[in-house]
Design a protein that fits this description.
By secondary structure, the protein is an alpha/beta fold. It folds into 2 domains: about 1-135, Beta-Lactamase, CATH 3.30.450; about 145-335, Rossmann fold (3-Layer(aba) Sandwich), CATH 3.40.50.300. The chain is about 30% helix and about 25% strand. The chain contains 12 helices and 17 strands. The protein has helices at about 1-10, 15-25, 30, 75-85, 95-100, 145-150, 170-180, 220-230, 245-255, 270-275, 280-285, 320-335, and strands at about 35-40, 45, 45-50, 50-55, 60-65, 70-75, 100-105, 110-120, 120-135, 160-165, 190-195, 215-220, 235-240, 260-265, 290-295, 305-310, 315-320. A hairpin with a 2-residue loop joins strand 8 and strand 9. The longest helix has 14 residues, at about 320-335. The chain is globular.
Amino acid sequence: MEQLNKDYNYIISFISPRLHMYLSKISDSILKDLQEIRLRADRPVVLVTNSGSCFLTTSGKTSFILSSNCVYSYKNEISDTVNKMCDYSMHSHYEDLLNGYLTLPNGSRVGLCGTAVYEKDKVKGVKDFSCINIRIPRNVIGISEKIMNDIFKYGLDDLLIVGAPSSGKTTMLKDIAYQLSSGRLGKFYKVCVVDERKEIFPEKTNLSLIGPNTDVLSGYPKAQGIMMAVRTLSPDVIICDEIGQKSEIDEMLIGMNSGVRFVLSVHASSYDELKRKSIYKSLFMKSSFKNIVFLSGSNNPCVISKIFNFNDEENICSINSDYIDNVSYICSKAN
């Protein structure tokens, strides 16, 4: 809980003073379930928790009823917050803003909505920001224990982690990198994390959470980072978040042919949705990639719902309730 409080206080330090005052009032019981802070111009502040979306009140409590006690954010506060998140230099964050996001130094991803600025039929900039969505990052040591025991029990293997937004994919990748690098399997594997958005192991990450044998390629496009890692770092395993572009998959296939294992994540809410994605056909039809872990969703972050082995398509193993209860306990203790 101490680290979560520290991260939360750091995040809200970027938010305009009036909103900061209200957000600083929330209790630990709210914070431990908090997933996102959503600020919208001239609309109420929404806190997304494990129980769903609710409104922030002036007392620092949450409400599922929209009332006069709800805190509103205003257009100038949205603009001031984005400016501060850019360290008062939007030009230096041009590419990120164009892609609709920022990553704070502690790894928190910030989604942005605004008005597109066109030049010769192409979007060249964004103005008049109207919405900020701030994700709350987490490190939960030990959350990947079932993966260590089931998927990696005979050594390293390729793994795809699948889940809907806010289901805990990045948190799971963090712990897998730490465990593999720290000798959890009886060997200190050489781990390389290609962290394009700087949110797996961001600038302010405590080095003890990374692992002693982990290298981080921070800010590199995934395709370029994978290529560099394979050519120069001789990794045992490469870890990437939100894979999917053809160029990324092509570099991965080259890496696999060189003996490198990959642990990846991808957005999908079901097996049927995953099968419609290009990554599925590329990896599972063209390589020996076979392991998939499905996360249950935003209501139970980091909880595994199914483990799937591509060698036996009929054998999709559901996870029992004792495991889910145990994971929930681990998360609550970590928070």
